[in-house]
């Protein structure tokens, strides 16, 4: 059950990793490590933060978490779409495995894990095993995603970046709609 939860939480990180792999050329071990490490770290930390916040803050976080994820993913996806229009996109230094873009993507893909931590606090369970498994699964799937995306991206060029931007915006919209509808 815990492994299924971890895989479910890591699906956004997997999709975003594929998009990142589409845009980074040439892909190095440093790119793969940075992305997998950050996505895994944030997927580990968010449930812990949610667990620490407990029931007192749960209703506040639930009211805004989907808006934060939507905003971050839409901003990054929109930036990728804008930059993909240019012939110099791949030489512009746009690297989703560095800086503020990496942190934004890490937060956006791990917001749901915050809610899981809140749920675990309500159940009065320990968070540590769950957080470690969630983080490791996210790191592993992120590694697979970025490698797969890069293989695909070398064949598709800047169209891959445009598609990737659309995917990020789509993930953001899906998160927003699923929270507003539910």
Topology:
Blueprint (H helix, E strand, L loop, with lengths): L1 H22 L5 H56 L14 H24 L5 H29 L1 H24 L1
Tell me, briefly, the overall form: globular
Number of domains: 1
Tell me the distance between the termini: 23 Å
Strand percentage, roughly? Answer: under 5%
Secondary-structure-derived class: mainly alpha
Whole-angstrom Rg: 16 Å
The mean pLDDT is 83
Number of strands: 0
Q: How much helix, percentage-wise, in residues?
A: over 70%
**What oligomeric state do these chains adopt?**
single chain
Biggest beta sheet summary: none
Which key terms come to mind for this protein?
182 residues, mainly alpha, 85% helix
Molecular structure report:
By secondary structure, the protein is mainly alpha-helical. The chain has one domain (2-181). It is built from 5 helices and no strands. The protein has helices spanning 2-23, 29-84, 99-122, 128-156, 158-181. It is globular and about 50 Å long. 44% of the residues are buried.
Summary of the model, kept short:
This protein has 182 residues and is mostly helical.
